[in-house]
Amino acid sequence: MLDATATRLEDDRVSVEVTLACGLVYGFARSEGCDADGERVCVSATWYAADDTAFARPLLRAESCQEVPDIIGTQVTVTTPDAVDRDPGLRILVSADPRVMNVVLPNP
């Protein structure tokens, strides 16, 4: 991911905006990597307690999928369907396509 930010909306839902990058994964052909066009890419945001260091007990999850002309530079926004607690003890694991790394963000 080139960038990921989490923003709290007025109704206490959270919106996570992600700008995708792409790295080739060992075993993928180049056509299945960064040069892949017109593919469906999914981005998920999953909330965990800060002490859940193994990311084993998800508390909330939101996902957005879209077809993209090019993975690199594509922006995907994931918004929770419901309000999220204003708990600073939560963190967000943002995950995307296997060719893109994960990012951990603080809960806004």
Give a structural overview.
0% of the residues lie in helices and 44% in strands. It has 108 residues and is mainly beta. It has a single domain (3-106), classed as Immunoglobulin-like (Sandwich), CATH 2.60.40. A 4-stranded antiparallel sheet has the order 4-3-6-7, with no helix packed on it. It has a 3-stranded antiparallel sheet with strand order 1-2-5, with no helix packed on it. A hairpin with a 5-residue loop joins strand 1 and strand 2.
List low-confidence stretches.
Answer: none
User: Which second-level CATH architecture applies?
Assistant: Sandwich
* Biggest β-sheet: strands ordered side by side in the sheet: 4-3-6-7
Looking at how many chains there are and whether they match, the oligomeric state comes to single chain
Helical coverage, percent range = under 10%
What spatial form do the alpha-carbon principal axes imply? Answer: globular
| Major sheet description | 4 strands, antiparallel
Query: Strand content of the residues, in percent?
Result: 35-45%
The structural domain count equals: 1
Task: Give the integer mean of the pLDDT values.
Answer: 86
**Gyration radius, to the nearest Å?**
14 Å
Q: Helix count?
A: 0
The CATH class, by name, is Mainly Beta
Q: Which short descriptors sum up this protein?
A:
mainly beta, 0% helix, Immunoglobulin-like, 108 residues, 4-stranded antiparallel beta sheet, 44% strand, 3-stranded antiparallel beta sheet, globular
List strands and helices in order, with pairings:
Elements: E1 3-8, E2 14-19, E3 39-49, E4 60-68, E5 75-79, E6 90-95, E7 103-106
